[in-house]
Specification:
18% helix; 36% strand; membrane; CARDB domain-containing protein; transmembrane helix; transmembrane
Length: 132
Amino acid sequence: MKKPILSIAIGGCFVAVTIFLVSSFLPIIPTSAKYSISVDPVIVKDEMGTETHVAIKNTGTDALTNVVIYYGGTAKPDTIPVLNPGEKISVSPPEGSELDKVYITTDQGINVTKEYRSPTSANFVGNSGYGG
């Protein structure tokens, strides 16, 4: 009678330890929203002039349509007709842009306002000074 109880106790401990180890060491997969976007406007001012770009990535699980980038000022907005999940596009603000923040809208109701950031490594090495 003691042997089955001991086997059950050892088996239960083994299962508990296994569950703990699996849940601790497996990466937790985050669930993505259906519609989500990442916006990264970058501005670099140095002795060579001013370099700007706006990186836009669809971080959701569904495609975004009519992604419109408003630069402010007298600049005409850019429109991306379709941005598929995981797709990343980089655009350059046109002449007449305010260069302080960008406004992004989509048909799915996303509205994002983001200020330009200056990267910490602002000096250019050829054409790759701030990554991208």
